Amino acid sequence: MKTHCIILVYSMAVCVSGQISDHKDRTPSDVYNQSKVHMKQDGRHQPEYYSYEQHCPDAEDIAPCFCTYHTLFNAMDLNCSAVKSEEQLKQIFKADFPFKNFRKFRIEHNNNLKVLEADVFNGISFKKIYMNNNNLEVIELQALSSCYETATEINLSANMIISFPFDELSLFSKLSHFDISSNSLSVIQADAFHGLTALE
Ligand SMILES: *[C@@H]1O[C@H](CO)[C@@H](O)[C@H](O)[C@H]1NC(C)=O
Ligand SMILES: *[C@@H]1O[C@H](CO)[C@@H](O)[C@H](O)[C@H]1NC(C)=O
Ligand SMILES: *[C@@H]1O[C@H](CO)[C@@H](O)[C@H](O)[C@H]1NC(C)=O
Predict the structure, then answer these.
(1) What is the CB neighbour count within 10 angstroms for residue 184?
(2) How does DSSP classify residue 57?
(3) According to the model, what pLDDT value does residue 23 have?
(4) Which residues cross the membrane (predicted)?
(5) Which residues have a Cβ under 8 Å from the Cβ of 66 and sit 6 or more positions away?
(6) Summary mean pLDDT of the chain
(7) Which of 79, 85, 97, 119 is the most buried (most CB within 10 A)?
(8) Is 106 a pocket residue for ligand 2 (Cβ < 6 Å)?
(9) If you average pLDDT over residues 104-121, what whole number do you get?
């Protein structure tokens, strides 16, 4: 079995093994469509699909968050699970983002954030927001305002949330999955979900 390696920018080595014949007429896309691509960059992430296109912000500008671009879906994901503080998260979103619309956003199993601050994402939007299993206590009004028109899924389960702006939920026009289970909310306003037509 042959192993093909391509050296990309930033000295990343992409190795594709198995299933690939030496047909000269195959394009890189064909390869990515069929094979898992293993990418090593400080051993930090291994997206299933990777392309030469550089849609993500510069890695050093957004560390310890990291961005992955998926050729197959033409989509970028951002994982900020290792973020150290509210202040750091805010700074990261002041970096230069060549493309502002992401697919997935993650902060999971993080103990460093208590507050998700208003407008923290600075205009960057996400479709799927996974912020489960953290120690978040407060989601401020307009913390997710950049996602009003994009968010289909917001998962805040298993935090310590005592305050969430439920009235704001009706502004998320495409939201179909919202999970705020296993938190510390005492009273959920009776009309919290009023006007949330997309919710299943
Ligand atoms: C993957 O294969 C499908 C079907 O052959 C094709 O429509 C699609 O454009 C391919 N994707 C890429 C990234 O080449
Ligand atoms: C997100 O990043 C954290 C650490 O930075 C890592 O442990 C986790 O596996 C990543 N999640 C995904 C889905 O890539
Ligand atoms: C939210 O995330 C938790 C933990 O990963 C998962 O168990 C739950 O099913 C998710 N909720 C939804 C609506 O997908």
Answers:
(1) 10
(2) P
(3) 39
(4) none
(5) 44, 45, 59, 78, 79
(6) 78
(7) 97
(8) yes
(9) 98
| Cβ(33) – ligand 1 distance below 6 Å | yes
Q: Using DSSP, state whether 89 is helix, strand or coil.
A: helix
Of 23-27, 42-46, 119-123, 169-173, the poorest mean pLDDT is in: 23-27
For ligand 3, what atom is nearest to the CA of residue 108? 5
Residue 139 pLDDT exceeds 70 = yes
3-state per-residue secondary structure call for 132-174: CCCCCCEECCCCCHHHCCCCCEEECCCCCCCECCHHHHHHCCC
Ligand nearest to the CA of residue 131, numbered in listed order: 3
Mean pLDDT across 33-46: 43
Neighbours of 146 (CB within 10 A): 20
